[in-house]
Amino acid sequence: MRTSFLIACVLIIHINANTQSIHLIKGSDKAEYFQVVSPEEAGFYSSCFRQLDTLCQGFIRDDKLPHLLVLVARHGKIAYFKEYGWNNIEQNRKLSKDDIFRIPSQTKPIVATGLMILFERGYFLLDDPVSKYIPEFKNPSVKLYPVASNDKKNTRPSNGEITIRHILSHSSGITYNIDNRAGKFKMPTFHSLDSITLKNIIPVIAAEPLEHDPGACWTYGLNMEVAGYLIELFSGQSLDQFLKENIFDPLGMKDTYFYLPAEKVGRLVELYAKKPGSNTWVDSLDTLARTFPVSGARSYFSGGAGLVGTIEDYARFCQMILNNGEFNNHRVLGRKTIELMRRNQIGEATLFESGDKFSLGYRLYSKNSTTLCGREGSEGSLEWGGMYFTQFLIDPVEDMIILIYTNTQSADKSIFAKCLNLIYSALK
Fold first, then answer.
1. How many CA atoms lie within 13 A of 113 on its CB side?
2. In this predicted model, what pLDDT tens digit does every residue of 249-281 receive, in sequence order?
3. What are the helix (H) ranges across 258-402?
4. Contact status, residue 115 vs residue 227, Cβ threshold 8 Å
5. Neighbouring residues of 47: CB distance < 8 A, sequence distance ≥ 6
6. H/E element, 47
């Protein structure tokens, strides 16, 4: 999995001379707004945003990207929001601000937040063993290395149980390399068109030996599928329904789904890849990746990779986290719970040798981060992205959120860093 996925969307809105409001959602009882202001009113230099605009136009002109959406907000107000390129090149349809993107691993922070809503309601404690609620996880085993392909005794008992804290911080030892795929239900790595549910695949994950003892280090894996199933167990609802009622509806995330309704299918951007041996963008040949939000059985709610949505929707979620659990008078989580979620949960371990830590659902930038984007973000910033190159950054020090979105399977990750360079340099 990529850690810093390219150009997730830089939360930035277009510069206007006069302060105005852009209608982003309509709540059940009243219209709600993100206020749009000039860069100067949000503490930026307009000249730097003009340079950002030139940079992004160049990405499209030079075929570095097929499309790009960038949004930047500071002090709860949008300072830059602009779209570039095409929703669909073949149909000559330009990208719109309200187009819908596949945001695979950006599903994870939302699911982590959903589980923490139930934490606040007293359903569990973070250090409860997962096996207390899902018995299949009792007495896990750990892989022995080197693994002999014909050796059936290549595991040992784990030194402890997997806890819910381990699941939310990716320190459980669960990986994406699930080998047990011969049973009745095939374990999807990311998406699925098959008629399966989280309940079907949880025993497959539980049966796989761990990469390491729980809590020993950080390993990216299928933890959020487990978190999603825990939400279903505790709430008695399907994951999609719980997230809709407790996060999407309160925040006005009206275009975020696991599977798109028919009337919104036309707003899904095309998923592109570079044509082999050329600089031309073509439709991805990965039919599953292209079509999972709109086809198939539509029954698998992947807690780690299943969501699609607009950049404005995810901006609302980011602003809620930045606002200590509230957005537009809707409370999702308490202030102390957000503070808990922002803390380092993996001790001395780090992510991908970057020096960064991991909280409950997010990369946590360290003081000396060496990750491509962490060199710009303030210490303590929260970040994550999706494998089709969507990205968000929540910077509490600067009171700022940045989102950058594209949907490709082949892009230069340095593009996101270049955008961040200009955004941070624009701060007064």
1. 27
2. 999 999 999 999 999 999 999 999 999 889 899
3. 287-291, 311-322, 335-341
4. yes
5. none
6. helix 46-61
Q: Flag whether pLDDT at 3 surpasses 50.
A: no
Give the tokens for residue 5.
């996925």
Q: What angle do CA 373, 376, 379 make, to 5 degrees?
A: 100
Write out the two tokens for 373. 């984007």
Parallel, antiparallel, or unpaired for β 357-358 and 363-364?
antiparallel
pLDDT band at 161 (very low <50, low <70, confident <90, very high): very high
pLDDT tens by residue, 203-253: 999 999 999 999 999 999 999 999 999 999 999 999 999 999 999 999 999
Q: What is the per-residue pLDDT for 368? A: 83
Q: Where are the alpha helices (DSSP H) in 121-160?
A: none
Q: Kindly give the interhelix angle for 198-207 and 223-235, rounded to the nearest 10 degrees.
A: 130
pTM for the model stands at 0.91
Neighbouring C-beta atoms of residue 315, cutoff 10 Å: 28
CB 133 within 8 A of CB 250: no
- Residue 347 tokens read as 């001790």
What is the sign of the dihedral through the CA atoms of 351, 355, 361 and 362?
Answer: negative
SS3 63: coil
Say how far apart CA 428 and CA 425 lie, in whole Å. Answer: 8
Give the type of residue at 371: T
**How many angstroms separate the CA atoms of 289 and 302, rounded?**
13
Calpha distance 87→210 (Å, rounded): 41
Considering only CA atoms, which of 267, 288, 289 is closest in space to residue 410?
Answer: 289
Strands 382-386 and 20-26: unpaired
| Distance, CA of 200 to CA of 186 (rounded, Å) | 9
Computed from CA positions of residues 308, 77, 371, 168, in that sequence, does the dihedral angle turn out positive or negative? Answer: negative
pLDDT, residue 397, reads 96
Distance CA(44)–CA(18), nearest Å, equals 15
Q: Which two tokens stand for residue 403?
A: 């989102």
Can you say whether residue 245 is alpha, beta or left, with left for phi > 0 and alpha for psi between -120 and 50 degrees?
A: alpha
CB 130 within 8 A of CB 137: yes
Percentage helix, strand, coil for the chain under 3-state DSSP, each rounded to 5: 30, 20, 50
CA dihedral of 326, 24, 359, 352, whole degrees rounded to 10: -170
